[in-house]
Write a structure and sequence with these properties.
Radius of gyration: 18 Å
Number of helices: 9
Number of domains: 1
Structural class: alpha/beta
Distance between the termini: 41 Å
Strand order of the largest sheet: 6-7-4-2-8-14-13
Length: about 260
């Protein structure tokens, strides 16, 4: 069995020379690290130590099951984005943004700004992902692949209004922090999927472009991925590519 020490985690994070007390969104897949010394609490303590005591940290608290259940509750709906994200969601002092698919947990000095977002579309204007861009936040992927480890790129797709996605409403029961049922219609910018064809994202060359242009810092941590992206320049470069070629990262597949 793979075993990962807290010293390895700390060294891997420090190798990326991340600024302290900044705004971070952290994606994670702890299974890639096997048995981790100190468990989830130890991993989070490492993150706090390296990122700084005044860092604002966000993690996905995504609930894709809402597509079937059509019921989401601020307190009761668990994060489906990995064990570390659920641990973080339940920590005292952690807030949650409201969206039945793409909520985020957040703690730190800027948490109230994210918690007050009232976006109806997952990644659209006024969303936490838009705020991450404005705050020039840094995206960290801890054990994940590029796909799944840089979700903010969907915000870029929505800003570009790419032709292979469209806004789809997902009516259902959405309960706020206070237990109030919200009478709002939440939506997602979904990929086009039809009986004859569908569009798939292709991220390999996006990653290659980011690496070649030094927009990403990447390491290996006990054989697993560890990378960081500054959201603003990565978004700006990706948006430039999409405005030139709207199908830059999508392919149409016929059934």
């Amino acid at each position: 069995m793979i075993k990962t020490s807290l010293a390895q985690i700390s060294a891997g994070l420090q190798a990326m020379h991340l600024p302290q007390n900044h705004v971070y969104i952290v994606h994670s897949s702890m299974l890639k690290f096997g048995l981790v010394e100190g468990g989830l609490a130890g991993v989070f303590a490492c993150l706090k130590e390296v990122l700084g005591p005044q860092a604002t940290i966000l993690m996905p608290a995504f609930t894709f099951s809402y597509g079937h259940t059509r019921v989401w509750d601020y307190h009761g709906s668990k994060s489906e984005a990995g064990a570390l994200t659920e641990y973080f969601r339940k920590l005292p002092g952690s807030y949650r943004t409201i969206h039945p698919f793409h909520s985020l947990s957040v703690a730190g000095p800027q948490a109230h700004l994210f918690a007050s977002c009232t976006n109806l579309s997952s990644f659209g204007p006024g969303s936490p992902f838009s705020l991450l861009y404005e705050m020039e936040a840094i995206n960290i992927a801890f054990g994940t692949e590029f796909e799944g480890g840089a979700t903010f790129l969907h915000h870029t797709e929505e800003v570009a209004n790419v032709p292979y996605r469209f806004h789809k409403d997902f009516p259902g029961v959405v309960m706020s922090e206070s237990g109030e049922q919200l009478s709002l219609s939440y939506k997602m910018f979904v990929r086009e999927i039809e009986e004859t064809h569908e569009y798939d994202n292709q991220w390999d060359h996006v990653w290659s472009d980011f690496v070649n242009e030094r927009l990403v810092v990447h390491e290996k941590l006990n054989g697993a991925n560890l990378f960081a992206l500054r959201i603003k320049p990565a978004h700006d470069r990706f948006l430039q590519q999409l405005m030139t070629d709207p199908l830059y990262c999508a392919v149409k597949r016929f059934k």
